[in-house]
Amino acid sequence: MDISGKSILVSGGGSGLGEATARLLADSGAKVVIGDINREKGEALAAELGEDRARFVAMNVTSEESVQEAVSAAIDAFGGLHAAINCAGIGLAERTVSRDGPHALASFTRVVTVNLIGTFNVIRLAAAAMSGQEPLSSGERGVIVNTASIAAFDGQIGQAAYSASKGGIVGLTLPVARDLSRLGIRVATIAPGIFDTPLLGTLPDAVREALGSQVPFPSRLGRPAEFAALVKHIIENEMINGEVIRIDGALRMPPK
User: Fold this and answer.
1) Per-residue pLDDT tens over the stretch 179-196
2) Are 33 and 55 in contact (CB under 8 A)?
3) How far apart are CA 184 and CA 241, in angstroms?
4) Catalytic residue among 56, 162, 195, 227, which?
5) CA separation for the pair 19, 114 (Å, rounded)
6) Residue in 67, 50, 86, 76 with CA at minimum distance from that of residue 169
7) Looking at residue 80, what is its pLDDT?
8) DSSP the chain
9) N or C: which end of the chain has fewer CB within 10 A?
10) Rounded to whole angstroms, how far apart are CA atoms 225 and 24?
């Protein structure tokens, strides 16, 4: 799919991987709707990119009404919805059993609800909107890109909730791609390693350097722009469908 002039929704688009993705897509000629729960960051990015290239919509991925409003906003502002990029998510470090007792069920539920159910909520509503559009000359109607994590495959101690939520995203990728194939909608998932996001930005430099040194090559933290470049390629490459792509510098996470 040629990105130029296409309408694209980015959940979690106000910061981190989502922000980098929104920037690159807008710079590549797309019309971007930035959906984020953080109004301040989302509005600031949309204002910077300019009204002709971007709009902000307050969006909670766990809410059907909220996501539907974001999808409708993309259609109203830019005449359709050609791609949806799922970057919204949260993390958690909590052992299954600790000195304080068993893992809190509420925190496990929250991580799975935001990361997995929230991702599927965006998928289903975005795909429903895409399905009613006229296909491109190739027969394609839309592209959906999800964000998992290498924790889906080798989660560390304390990552039961996070790994389960990201593993769920990996697991739904192929069946959803098969579901939507008859509609001309492609689905792919990116599984990033350790990336230099705002969450890691709060850590001391020595800790950040130690994390980066674990990566075989290049031995550094991933750059959000590198994640965004892969999103762009997936949108543009029509044969990428039903696949989960690791972007991690060959990192395999140790137990802790």
Assistant:
1) 999 999 999 999 999 999
2) yes
3) 11
4) 162
5) 18
6) 86
7) 97
8) ---TT-EEEEETTTSHHHHHHHHHHHHTT-EEEEEES-HHHHHHHHHHH-TTTEEEEE--TT-HHHHHHHHHHHHHHHSS--EEEE-------B-SEETTEEPPHHHHHHHHIIIIIHHHHHHHHHHHHHHTSPP-TTS--EEEEEE--THHHHPPTTBHHHHHHHHHHHHHHHHHHHHHHTTTEEEEEEEE-SB--HHHHTS-HHHHHHHHHTSSSS-SPBPHHHHHHHHHHHHH-TT--SEEEEESTT------
9) C
10) 8
* Domains assigned to the chain: 7-245 (3.40.50.720)
Q: How far apart are CA 124 and CA 142, in angstroms?
A: 12
For the segment 113-165, what is each residue's pLDDT rounded down to a tens digit? 999 999 999 999 999 999 999 999 999 999 999 999 999 999 999 999 999 99
The pLDDT value recorded for residue 193 is 95
| Whole-number Cα distances in Å, 91 to 1, 103, 113, 196 | 32, 14, 12, 15
Structure tokens at 81: 């919805």
In angstroms and rounded to an integer, the radius of gyration of the C-alpha atoms of the chain is 18
Q: Which residue has the tokens 């709009």?
A: 55
Question: Tokens 């922000």 — which residue?
Answer: 19
- How far is Cα 59 from Cα 62, in angstroms, rounded to an integer? 9
Assess contact for 186 and 139: CB atoms under 8 A.
Answer: no
Is residue 60 flagged as an active site residue?
no
Query: What is the total residue count of the chain?
Result: 256
> Whole-angstrom Cα distance, residue 16 to residue 123?
20
